[in-house]
Predict the 3D structure of the following.
Amino acid sequence: MIYQNVALIGAGRVAHHLAKAINNSGRKIVQVYSRRIAHAEELASAYKAAATDEITNPDASADIYIIAISDDAIAEVAGQLAVANKMVVHTSGSTPMDVLQAASSNYGVLYPLQSFAFNQEIDFSQVPLCIEAADPDAKENLMQLARSLSRDVRQVDSDTRMQIHIAAVFANNFTNFMYLMAQEILADGKVDFDILMPLIEETTRKLQLQHPHNAQTGPARRADNGIIRKHLDQLRDHPEKQEIYKLLSRIIQQHFQKK
Ligand SMILES: NC(=O)c1ccc[n+]([C@@H]2O[C@H](COP(=O)([O-])OP(=O)(O)OC[C@H]3O[C@@H](n4cnc5c(N)ncnc54)[C@H](OP(=O)(O)O)[C@@H]3O)[C@@H](O)[C@H]2O)c1
C-alpha cells in the first residue's frame, strides 16, 4: 500500500466520512489538523490519531495529506503546509489542482461526488471519486487509494470537475431547495411534506430508466398556460416562489418548443 499513512487537513463533513472510509480500507489516519483544536481532537480520537491546530507542523510520517476544508481557505492553508515532495490533495469540486503547488511538488485532487452531512450513514463504496494528479506515478498511487475507498473512480481534469460540480449543484442543491419551497407551500395548506415522498422517490427511480428529457411532465411541459396562470395567481403573496415558478415554466416551455 503506497499511501498507508494519511494526514487529514480539516475535520468537517468530508473529513469525517473520508476518515471512516480510509480507516476501513486498512490505512492509518496519523494526524488530523483543524484550526479549532476541539474539532481536530474529536475526529482524531475516533481513529487514535494525533490532533493539531498548527498547520505548519504536519506529521512527517504521513504519505499523503488530504486537505478537506472550506474552498476559500484551501490556497491559503496549502501555502502554509510545506511537505516537500509528499502527496497533497484537496477534495473540492471547483478548486483547480494547481493551488496546491505551494504545498508540495506532488499534488492532486480526490473529489467525492456526494452530499455529506454529519451523523449520516453513507456507503462510501458507492460514492463516485474524481481524481486528478500532476505526476503520472502519483496519479497511479492516488488511483490505488481511491479504488480501495470506492468502486467508482474516474480520472477527471480540473475543468471537467467544475462542470461535474455545477451539474451536482443543479441536481442536488437546487432540487433540495425546491423541496423546501414545496414543503412551505404544503405547510400553508396544513398538509405534511410526506404526501410528496412517493412522487419524489418515483422521480428519482424513473431517472435510472429514462433520460430526464423524456421524464419531464407538468403544466409547463404540456404548455398548459391556463393552469400556469392559476398557479401564479395562487402564489401572489409569495413573490419569490412566483418568480421561480414563472422562470422555470418559461425555460421548460422554451426548451421543449425547440425540440
Ligand atoms: N459537504 C459536501 O457535501 C462536499 C462534497 C464534496 C466535496 N466537498 C468539498 O470538501 C471540502 C470540505 O467541505 P466540508 O463540507 O467538509 O466542509 P465543512 O464541513 O464546512 O468543514 C469546513 C472545514 O474547513 C475548516 N476551515 C474553514 N475555514 C478555514 C480556514 N480559513 N483555515 C483553516 N481551516 C478552515 C473548518 O475548520 P474548523 O471547523 O476548525 O473551523 C472545517 O474543518 C470543500 O472543498 C468542499 O467543497 C464537500
User: Anything to note?
Assistant: Residues 10-15, 34-36, 39, 68-71, 73, 77, 91-93, 112, 114-116 surround NAP (CB under 6 Å). The mean pLDDT is 96. The chain has nine helices and eight strands. Residues 158-188 form the longest helix (31 residues).
